[in-house]
Amino acid sequence: MAKRERLEIIKDILKIINDNRAMKITPLIRRSNLSTSRFKEYFGDLLRKGFVVEKNKTIKITEKGSRFLEKYQTILHFIDEFDL
Amino acid sequence: MNAGIGTEIIYAFVIILCSLMIYFGTRELYELTSHKGIKYFRQAFLFFALAYFFRSFIKFIIKYFDLRNIFEFAPMLFGPITLFLFAYLSSIAIFYLLYSVIYKRLEKKKYVLYLIHAIALVFAFLILLSQNPLMHLYINGILFILAGITVYFAKINSKKKKGQNLYTIYILLFIFWILNILDILVPAFIEIFQLIIYLSSISIFLTILYKVLRNLGVK
Predict the structure, then answer these.
(1) Residue ranges making up the domain that contains B26
(2) Does the beta-carbon distance from B29 to A81 stay under 8 Å?
(3) Distance of residue B32 Cα from the nearest chain A Cα, in angstroms
(4) Angle, to 10 degrees, between the axis of helix B164-185 and the axis of helix B75-106?
(5) Which of B32, B41, B154 is opposite residue A75, by nearest beta carbon?
C-alpha cells in the first residue's frame, strides 16, 4: 500500500476521534471504514506513536495526534513537492 | 589565519548551517510520519553538513583550539583522512537524495543501502589513492550522470505532475557540485575566482534552504 494512503487512513482515524473528543473502540472501527484486522494494525501504530491513548476502553487523541492533524496538509504538500 | 582559509571556513559554515537547518527543520515531519522518503531526504543534508565539516570547518577547529599537536605524530595523515571523509560523505549525500525519490521501487531490496555505502567507499578510496583532482572530477561526473538518469526515469515514471522542487534542487546541486569541482581544480591563488565560486555556491544552498522551508510552511 502506498505511503500516502497510509497517512490518509491515520488522518481519518485521528479526525474521527478528534471530532468526537473521545470514543469507544467499536464505533470507531465502524466509522473508520476498515476491516477489524486492518483497523487493529493502524490502531496499534497510533498507540505506539503516541497519537492516541486508551483509558477505560475509551480512546482519546493526544497532543502529538492533534499536531499530526494540524500538520497533515503540510506533510502531504512536502511529500508531493519533493516527490518523496 | 589568512584570508583564503577564512573565506573557505565562512563558506563551509554557511553550507553546514543551511544543511543542518534543513535536517532539523524536517525533523517534526519525520517524527510524525516515519516516512522513509523524508528520512532519506533529511539524512542527505546531514551528510552534506558532515562532508563540509571535514572539508573545511575542521581546519578552523584545529587552528582555533590549537589542536595541531594532536596531528603532530603524523601530520601527513590529516589531509588524506579529511579528503577521504569528504569524498565518502558527499557521495553518500547525493546517493541518499536520489534514494529518497526511488526507495519505493527498491523497498524490498534491503541490500541497496549497503551497496550505496560500498560504492561511496570505493569512490573515496579511488580519490584518496589516486591523489589526483581529475579523479575527483571523473568520479563526480559518473555520480551525476547516474543521478541524472535516476531522476529522469523517476520523473517520467511518476504519475504525479508535482515534484518540481526536487528537480530544481537537483539542478541547483548539480551546478553547486560543478562549482566545487572547479574550486578543487583551479589553483588557490586565483582568489577572486574562488570567491565567485563560494558566493555562487552559497546562493544555491540558500535557495535550496528557502525552497525546503517554504514547503514546511515556515514564514
Answers:
(1) 3-215
(2) no
(3) 6
(4) 160
(5) B32
Is residue B88 classed exposed, middle or buried when 0-12, 13-18 and 19+ CB atoms within 10 A define those classes?
A: buried
SS3 content of chain B, % helix, strand, coil (to 5): 85, 0, 15
**How would you classify the pairing of strands A52-55 and A22-24?**
unpaired
Q: Binning pLDDT at 50, 70 and 90, where does residue B187 land?
A: low
Domains of chain A, each with CATH number or no CATH: 3-81 (1.10.10.10)
Query: Is the predicted pLDDT of residue A1 greater than 50, yes or no?
Result: no
ipTM, 2 dp:
0.86
- The Cα of A6 is separated from the nearest Cα of chain B by a number of Å equal to 10
Region A20-31 average pLDDT = 91
Cell representation of residue B106: 527498491
Half-sphere exposure of B48 (CA within 13 A, CB side): 29
Helix, strand and coil percent figures for chain A, each rounded to 5: 70, 15, 15
CB B35 within 8 A of CB A3: yes
Contact A75 B100 (CB under 8 A): no
Provide the domain count of chain B: 1
State pLDDT tens for residues A49-65. Answer: 999 999 888 999 999 99
Spatial separation of the C-alpha atoms in residues B205 and A4, rounded to whole Å: 29
